[in-house]
Specification:
Layout (H helix, E strand, L loop, with lengths): L1 H11 L27 E2 L84 E2 L2 H9 L15 E3 L2 E6 L2 E6 L3 E6 L5 H8 L1 H5 L7 E3 L2 E5 L4 E6 L2 E6 L3 H8 L14 E4 L3 E6 L2 E6 L3 E5 L1 H9 L15 E4 L3 E6 L2 E6 L3 E6 H9 L15 E3 L2 E6 L2 E6 L3 E6 L20 E7 L6 E10 L2 E11 L23 E10 L9 E3 L4 E3 L11 E3 L8 E2 H6 L7 E5 L15 E3 L9 E2 L2 H10 L5 E6 H4 L2
Parallel strand pairs: 23-34, 26-27, 32-33
Antiparallel strand pairs: 1-2, 3-4, 4-5, 5-6, 7-8, 8-9, 9-10, 11-12, 12-13, 13-14, 15-16, 16-17, 17-18, 19-20, 20-21, 21-22, 23-24, 24-25, 26-31, 26-34, 28-29, 28-30, 31-32
Length: about 600
C-alpha cells in the first residue's frame, strides 16, 4: 500500500511557501478515525465543487487534482449569473399589417441609468470533514496557525489532503492526519522550500519537540530536524540515516547538528549529531565516533589519514578505565592517565599481539613518530621501535626516557647514541650503564648492563677528577671521537691499532699531556697502552677515548679517561664486559656521547 500512497503523494505536487522561523508546533494526531461532523467556514472555494452539509471521511476520488497557486482576489462570478449590457432588446410583433420599420438606433440620454445586473452569488462554505477536519479543529480551526481552508479535500491512492491558508493537512489510514505548516513552525517552511511532496513525501508525524529542537518525519524516510543553528535533514534510507535510527534516532545520538556530507574518500558519507558523528563507507558500513577518540582521529586526518574509516564502535571497560576503537588502519586507545593515541602499522600489530593495553607496556603516551627508515612509539612502560634493518623491537622504559622529557641535566647535542653511566651516590664505583639509541627523535635503551668507574667514585659536577692515582671519575657529558685496540672490531670511529710504542701522556705541563704519542720509554705517569692491552686482564684490548679534558687541555685536571674492557673498579675510566665494549664500538659514530656521574647529578 505504501508505494501507491507515495505515488499519489507525488501527483499531488504542492507549491512551496516562504521559510518563516516562528515556532508553532502541531497538536498530536490520531491515525484513523471515523468521519467527523462537517465544519464549514465562509471562504471562497478555489478548486473543486462546494460541499453542502456533512461529508463522509476522505475517500478516493477519480482523477488527481494538483494543488493550484492560491489566488489573491475573489473568484469572479460566472457569466451565466449576469445579464450582458450589449444584448439587443426583445421585440414583439405588431398586430397591424404595416411593414416592419426598423427604427434608427437611439442614443440614450445622459440621465438614463444603465441596465440593472444581478448581484454576484455569495461564496459557498468549504467543508473540512473527517479526520482532516478533526485535526484542523484540534489546531483551533480557522483561528489557528492553519487558518481557513483554501480548497476542498482531494483523495487519491489512499492519500487525502486539504490546503489551508497556513499550510496543508495530509491523511492516510496508516499514519493519520498531520499538518505541514507553511508559515509557522520550523520544519514546515523547510519542507516547502526543499521540494515538498516530490522530495519528502507527505508527513507521517507532526512537528514535535525533541531535546535541543524539533523534528518531523515524512513518507520517503526523510526527516527534518530544527535546532537553533538551523534545519537539517536526515536521509532515513541512507547508510548514515538507517544507523542513526537503529541507535534510537533523536533519543540516541540526538538531533543532527550539520547536514550529511557524501562523496568522501572511498565513496563514504558522514553526518554530525549532538552526541557523536556517524561515518559510513561501502567497505566498513556505518559506525559512531565520539568524544576524545573522535578528537584524536580528526587530529590524525580522520578518514583521509592512515587510520581510515572506523570498523567498530568504541569499546570501554579496558584496564585503568580505558576505551579503544578500531579503524581500517589501526586502533585508538584512551585512558584517563594518558589521553587518546593511535597505534598502527607494524608497531600497532606488535602492540596488539602483546595484549595491547593489557600488556606490560600499558597505554600509548604519544603518536607514532617516523623519520627516514625508522619509527618509534612510546608507551607507559616502554617503547616499540622499527627500522628497515632490524625490524620491530620492544624497548624497556629506562633512564633513556629522561633524555626525551627534559629530565636530564646534561645535553646530548643531538648524538645518535648516548651511554648513560651512573652510580647511586658518591664514593661508589659500581655503576649502571644504559646504551641509548636515538630512533626517529626519541632515545630508547639498546641495552643495559653493570660495570665500574673509578674506585673512589665520581667527583661532583665541575670538579676535575685530577690525577689517575686518586682513582676518581669525572662528571659530565663528553663526546666520543676515536677508538683504539689490537684490531678494529668494525667501528665507524677513527681507530688506532696499538703497538709496543703506544703511550698516553700523563705527566702534566708536558706537550704530550692527555694525548696519544709513541715512545720506547715509559716515563712517570704516562700510560703504556701496549702493556695494558696485552697483559692477562687485557684492559685496553679494545677501548674508546672519552673526551674529558680535551681537546682544550687543563694541566693536571685529569687524563686517560677511557671506556675499556676488564670489568673491575678503575683509576677513573669506565669498565664493561668485553661484549658490551665491542658492541658499543661497532655501533658508535663520531659525535656520540657518554654522560656520566651520580644519579642525582645527572637527572632531575
Amino acid at each position: 500500500m505504501k508505494k501507491p500512497i507515495l505515488a499519489a503523494a507525488l501527483l499531488l505536487g504542492l507549491a512551496a511557501g516562504p521559510f518563516v522561523s516562528t515556532p508553532a508546533l502541531a497538536v498530536g494526531s490520531t491515525s484513523a478515525m471515523p468521519a467527523a461532523q462537517t465544519t464549514e467556514v465562509q471562504a471562497t472555494e478555489v478548486t473543486g465543487p462546494a460541499t453542502d452539509g456533512a461529508s463522509p471521511a476522505p475517500t478516493d476520488t477519480a482523477g488527481t487534482i494538483p494543488e493550484a497557486p492560491l489566488p489573491s482576489e475573489p473568484v469572479s462570478p460566472s457569466p451565466s449569473d449576469t445579464t450582458s449590457a450589449t444584448s439587443p432588446p426583445e421585440t414583439t410583433p405588431s398586430d397591424t399589417t404595416s411593414p416592419a420599420v426598423t427604427p434608427p438606433p437611439s442614443t440614450p440620454s445622459p440621465s438614463t441609468p444603465p441596465p440593472a445586473t444581478a448581484p454576484p452569488a455569495a461564496p459557498k462554505p468549504i467543508a473540512v470533514p473527517g479526520p482532516i477536519g478533526a485535526k484542523w479543529q484540534a489546531m483551533k480551526g480557522a483561528a489557528g496557525v492553519l487558518g481557513a481552508p483554501r480548497t476542498s479535500q482531494f483523495c487519491s491512492g489512499g492519500l487525502c489532503h486539504q490546503i489551508f491558508r497556513g499550510g496543508n493537512i495530509y491523511w492516510t489510514a496508516k499514519t493519520g492526519a498531520h499538518p505541514v505548516l507553511r508559515n509557522s513552525g520550523h520544519t514546515g517552511p523547510a519542507w516547502y522550500a526543499g521540494g515538498t511532496l516530490p522530495t519528502f513525501g507527505y508527513p507521517t508525524t507532526d512537528e514535535v519537540a525533541a531535546p535541543g529542537g524539533t523534528i518531523q518525519r515524512f513518507a520517503t524516510g526523510r526527516i527534518l530536524a530544527w535546532i537553533p543553528k538551523g534545519v537539517y535533514q536526515v536521509r532515513g534510507t541512507g547508510g548514515v540515516g538507517r544507523y542513526w535510527i537503529a541507535l534510537g534516532a533523536e533519543r540516541g545520538l540526538g538531533l543532527p547538528i550539520n547536514r550529511e556530507f557524501c562523496g568522501l574518500k572511498g565513496g563514504g558519507c558522514a553526518q554530525a549529531f549532538a552526541k557523536g558523528n556517524i561515518y559510513w563507507s561501502p567497505a566498513t558500513g556505518a559506525r559512531i565516533v565520539t568524544g576524545v577518540i573522535n578528537q584524536r582521529w580528526r587530529a590524525d586526518a580522520g578518514h583521509n589519514g592512515a587510520l581510515g574509516y572506523p570498523v567498530a564502535n568504541q569499546v570501554c571497560g579496558q584496564p585503568a578505565g580505558g576505551c579503544l576503537q578500531r579503524f581500517q588502519g589501526g586502533t585508538i586507545y584512551w585512558s584517563p592517565a594518558t589521553g587518546a593515541w593511535a597505534s598502527r602499522g607494524v608497531i600497532g600489530t606488535k602492540y596488539a599481539s602483546m595484549g595491547a593495553s593489557r600488556s606490560s607496556l600499558g597505554y600509548p603516551t604519544a603518536r607514532l613518530r617516523c623519520a627516514g627508515s625508522q619509527c618509534v612509539q612510546s608507551f607507559q612502560r616502554g617503547y616499540i621501535g622499527w627500522t628497515s634493518t632490524t625490524g620491530v623491537r620492544v624497548y624497556a622504559m629506562t633512564e633513556c626516557s629522561k633524555l626525551n622529557n627534559g629530565r636530564s641535566k646534561y645535553p646530548t647535542h643531538g648524538a645518535n647514541r648516548v651511554l648513560l653511566t651512573f652510580t647511586q651516590g658518591y664514593g661508589q664505583s659500581r655503576a649502571t650503564n644504559i646504551y641509548c639509541v636515538r630512533m626517529a627523535g626519541l632515545y630508547v635503551a639498546d641495552w643495559k648492563t653493570d660495570g665500574y668507574v673509578g674506585a673512589s667514585g665520581f667527583k661532583p659536577p665541575g670538579v676535575p677528577s685530577g690525577p689517575t692515582r686518586y682513582l676518581y671519575s669525572p662528571t659530565g657529558s663528553f663526546s666520543v671521537t676515536e677508538a683504539f685496540g689490537l684490531g678494529n672490531p668494525g667501528t665507524k670511529l677513527p681507530y688506532r691499532t696499538l703497538n709496543p710504542r703506544s703511550r698516553w701522556g700523563g705527566n702534566p705541563w708536558t706537550a704530550t699531556y692527555n694525548k696519544y704519542f709513541e715512545s720506547s720509554s715509559w716515563v712517570g705517569w704516562d700510560e703504556n697502552m701496549w702493556y695494558f692491552a696485552t697483559r692477562a686482564t687485557h684492559d685496553y684490548r679494545q677501548g674508546v677515548v672519552i673526551n674529558y679534558n680535551r681537546p682544550n687541555i687543563v694541566q693536571d685536571a685529569g687524563f686517560a679517561i677511557f671506556l675499556h674492557m676488564n670489568k673491575v673498579p678503575t683509576a677513573g675510566c669506565i669498565s664493561l664486559d668485553d661484549w658490551a665494549v665491542v658492541d658499543y664500538m661497532r655501533k658508535a659514530t663520531p659525535g656520540d656521547r657518554i654522560i656520566m656521574g651520580t644519579y642525582s647529578a645527572l637527572f632531575r
